[in-house]
Amino acid sequence: MIRYISRYDRGRFALAIAGPYALIVVGVTIYVEISTRQPGSQGLEAIWLFAVTSPASQILLLLPLPAPEISRFLFPAAGLLQAWILWLIVRGRRKSMTPAGALPLRDDHEGQDQNRMG
Question: Which residue of 26, 43, 111, 116 is most buried, as measured by CB atoms within 10 A?
Fold first, then answer.
């Protein structure tokens, strides 16, 4: 995983920003799911999920959703999509050098020349 991240100019920095955001989205989703199922809950805990996944959650509120149960999956998905987009923006361009541990490719003409001589 680290080799994949280090292929980009700012891959580790992007992971340091997008990773915790994705963990916060997952943690708040778990908190909201557990706390709204407790007796006496009025569902106001979902405001935390709305706040964490903003601005995508604000756009989702404008869409006509067929059932409230669908928003249970859409808001966390929107937050994870935002984390992915954040990683794409922050990571920068792919490095031109080969990653550490990669084997250099052999030129096909060299292999053919060795076969002819040997």
Answer: 26
Reading the block at residue 93, the tokens are 């361009």
d(CA 86, CA 80): 10
pLDDT tens digits for 17-61?
A: 999 999 999 999 999 999 988 998 888 888 999 999 999 988 888
Q: What does the domain layout of the chain look like in residue ranges?
A: 11-38
98 backbone φψ class: left, alpha, beta (φ>0; ψ -120 to 50)? beta
The predicted model scores a pTM of 0.70
- C-alpha distance across the termini of the chain, in Å: 41
CA distance 11 to 79: 20
3-state secondary structure at position 58: helix
